[in-house]
Design goal:
homodimer; alpha/beta; six-stranded mixed beta barrel
């Protein structure tokens, strides 16, 4: 019925290939049709999106599917993008290739440039991801290839998610964490401060109000040790150090200006997004956070890759432990500490870990303006200053100061206290603020307020870090700088029935109602007897 | 420096909440501003995409991020969509909400309808996914919740990928596979043929040219047993049964017409995408295939959920084993068989598994037209018909016929052979083709051909299924129906040096060059001595 029709003029001569020769690289499928680039004013965040008209010849002949990845080449420049198919010539015409803002910037050619569109090669490093899913150990070359492909945007988001889950389900071994960290450092730029000691401190997070960096930096810099602190903005918390510092000073600084400030002031408190430090980390986090997956390996690689790339030589890591902290048990904290130490040592970092009390928020304020207020009160030696924030900052600063070979072991705390009590830390903070650029307008706590009272008399036996952070976020923090929560009572404090536990601040009515309704479900506090307070055994 | 400014008129009365009351449901954040729906002619395949102008008030005040998920509500209808931010009012104006074609259809309201946009609640079933990542067993309720959320499009693609990887890394237990299968059946419609025996057969895939269904269906239907076969199109292979049948007849049939055909002819060979059978499977596959992740649990759930939803009562599963098949070792095939049997029994299916020879492609042709040719030659009892395809189809058909209580065990093969040899199977095939709608134009093998010759003399000791499939795909199959590979030599055949092993057919010059270049790297054949042929121990 159906027989092959062979026309003599199309039969090529038989060819002979060695059967031993194995495939090394798939040939790339090239189409002969070129398309003109058009910029489509759609912001697709970190994902490259390309738009082809349904009547586009290339779309019809190449067998592309909507949402499949395509490779776009203009001369030697090429990117991968996710394909959306368009039925409206006003967005993209049949002979055009539309590019979202990100894809347009990423390809880096002018509009109307002729480009070719192809089936992309599947990133080879996906084989390593599949081996990880199958339970195998990966080596340095595997992690280098995976992180390299992720940095070059060769992975789709589901592929990134597959890597994240694969690397968290069967926890990475300590050498795998090292390989991942190294690969992430190599994915971007690396600062070199050309000093023997470049100090930094970092908390693994999860404790609201824990703004010790804004105290440690002025203390350590006032001592003369270099501490060029770059921080992130909040992603899932009600305030990051960058958000809080921004209440007082400009934090988005060009890298050259940052270098001049650090050279002169010995420290800074800036946003870390200006330099391209461990860019793979940003890409991984953008997929990881919405998935709500936390793994030790990725936590360590994320923190250490950023620090090594930022040029740190000496690093203090703060691991808070508590029933609603990221780390809930001392055993877990010790495991994490050993992993940090192992990877830090292999990377040539001088790294120390302190395990701290993470049973409740630190200080009184939660949210950028309220936290900045607490920090300034400590620096001003104000009697209203929260003592737990002051004590924690002094201990951390003391440990950082002991990185200085001239500081005798055990003397750091006293030196830090002298610097704070004498007003030299406040003076240094003012100098750093002035150098970075003082904020013109003074921010105030949100004017919509709600005081939350205790339903019973007793002693505060628990404050849920997660719930307090959530209430502050619902109230508008960190986007609304004045939004957040101001705590009146901390663990062990006695309360009368009806006495306020904390005050919620919001700037907008919708946020206010939103926080109020969350608070009605769970106000985050536990009231009981003194004996009910969970004990904490920290080494600090 | 910064003090809270509290205006008395905004201070709400202190409220008292029970601390015992725990949060059960996050309040949904409602914005007061409504937006008008606009249909944006962009095809985003299975993903809902929404477009907001950067100057849109809702976008500015709600703190949405590009690529984050938003919830869109119109009265009681609501969908989740991925947000893209637009800077061009021609695409979407600041007071409009743009919806991609999928999202527009999915929301199901008219243009200009007023809608509200909110932060979505995080699907609760993600907690179960996280428990799976942590290594826990999930129960029926967990799988029901996960598959329900996936079917309602409440998962982003990275979230789906997280579930797929989590469920494949620590293999699902057999009860988990059962729960997953049940949840997938429940995600869609279910056909009921109202007959005691509704037979089907299914191969787990991976063997090019394995078109036995197109022989089993006419043989079994000619016997009078009901076999309403619905098949998929090729996703990663050079031809699916639907693609091959489409060379001969219409395969996309409305469900009512399909029912009439099956009632009259006792069988059909149609595309399975018309009814909404196990829609969760389609969503999972769309994410799973590009990731290249294969897990036993998902394979079984995917196949059995489709079959149960399609109303099958009796099912024959074909597991080919061979060095380049999906299943490479007999031990693995036996494990898979036990899992199929366990889940099938629990679902009330009469299920049998056969393990077959998967060392090489079945038949001669690979690609829709060439495979259809082989099938028709077998039906026509043509001396040119590939005997391996004939034998395999007769054995499978024989086993299916033995589902009939009136057929004595062991007699099925002889009955099948009688039906084939007598021409009754061909007659039934013509009747099915006529009922579904005969294709008007006869397709021919692609006219661009290349014969690939053996570089040495010897015996064919290996044919790589994966490489032959790849060459056929590069040549244009299945989109170009006439494209593919026609095999002249099979395992054990002697070849002279320079003698052709197979012929590549292409329809387009670009495909032709593409296949040629792949073939130059690895022609897929191994030539050696008779003793080098890998043995096979199959139970069939």
């Amino acid at each position: 019925m159906i027989e092959p029709t062979v026309r003599a003029d199309f039969v090529a001569a038989p060819i002979e290939f060695s059967t031993a020769k194995k495939m090394t690289k798939s040939p790339t499928r090239r189409t002969d049709k070129a398309l003109r680039v058009r910029r489509v004013a759609i912001d697709t965040y970190r994902e490259n999106v390309a738009y082809l008209h349904r009547d586009c010849l290339v779309y019809r002949t190449e067998g592309f599917q909507a949402l499949s990845k395509i490779e776009i080449a203009a001369g030697k420049r090429h990117i991968l993008a996710v394909l959306n198919v368009v039925d409206d010539s006003a967005i993209v015409a049949p002979d055009e290739l539309g590019l979202s803002e990100q894809a347009f910037a990423h390809l880096g050619v002018d509009e109307k440039t002729q480009v070719r569109v192809d089936h992309p090669e599947r990133p080879k490093s996906l084989d390593a991801v599949r081996r990880k899913i199958a339970g195998q150990q990966l080596d340095q070359a595997d992690f280098g290839a995976i992180i390299g492909d992720i940095t070059r945007n060769h992975y789709s988001k589901p592929e990134i998610a597959a890597f994240i889950v694969a690397a968290s389900q069967n926890e990475l071994g300590r050498d795998e964490i090292l390989y991942l960290t190294r690969a992430m450092v190599d994915s971007g730029e690396r600062l070199d401060w050309q000093e023997p000691i470049v100090a930094d401190k970092h908390c693994i997070g999860g404790i609201p109000g824990n703004r010790t960096s804004m105290l440690v930096v002025p203390i350590v810099a006032a001592h003369g040790m270099l501490i060029p602190k770059t921080s992130s903005r909040a992603i899932t918390s009600p305030a990051g150090t960058a958000d809080t510092m921004e209440v007082l000073a400009t934090v988005e600084l060009p890298i050259d200006k940052l270098r001049r400030i650090v050279r002169k002031q010995r420290g800074c408190l800036a946003w870390g997004g200006t330099a391209r430090l461990s860019p793979a980390d940003d890409i991984l986090i953008a997929v990881e956070r919405p998935l709500g997956i936390d793994s030790k390996g990725q936590l360590i690689a994320s923190i250490l890759s950023k620090k090594v790339a930022a040029g740190s030589t000496h690093l203090l890591i703060d691991i808070p432990v508590g029933p609603s902290a990221k780390v809930r048990h001392m055993r877990e904290a010790q495991q994490l500490r050993k992993l940090f130490e192992y990877v830090g040592d292999q990377l040539g970092l001088h790294l120390e870990v302190v395990i701290t009390d993470g049973r409740q928020p630190v200080g009184k304020g939660i949210g950028p303006v309220l936290e900045a207020r607490d920090v300034m009160r400590v620096l001003q030696n104000d009697p209203e200053a929260p003592d737990d924030l002051r004590q924690k900052a002094l201990r951390l600063a003391g440990r950082v100061l002991e990185f200085d070979p001239d500081v005798r072991g055990g003397r750091g705390f006293a030196i830090a206290r002298d610097i704070l009590d004498s007003g030299r830390a406040l003076e240094k903070m003012h100098a750093i603020i002035a150098a970075q650029g003082k904020q013109g307008t003074e921010s105030k706590p949100g004017r919509l307020v709600l005081e939350v009272a205790s339903p019973v008399a007793g002693v505060v036996t628990g404050i849920d870090n997660l719930q307090m952070a959530r209430i502050a976020r619902y109230a508008g923090a960190p986007a609304a700088k004045g939004a957040g929560v101001d705590l009146f009572k901390k663990l062990g404090d006695g309360v009368k029935k009806g006495e306020p536990l904390y005050r919620i601040h919001a700037e907008f009515a919708a946020d206010f109602r939103f926080a109020e309704s969350l608070c009605k479900q769970d106000n985050g506090y536990q009231i009981g007897r003194m004996a009910d307070i969970p004990p904490v055994f920290v080494q600090f």
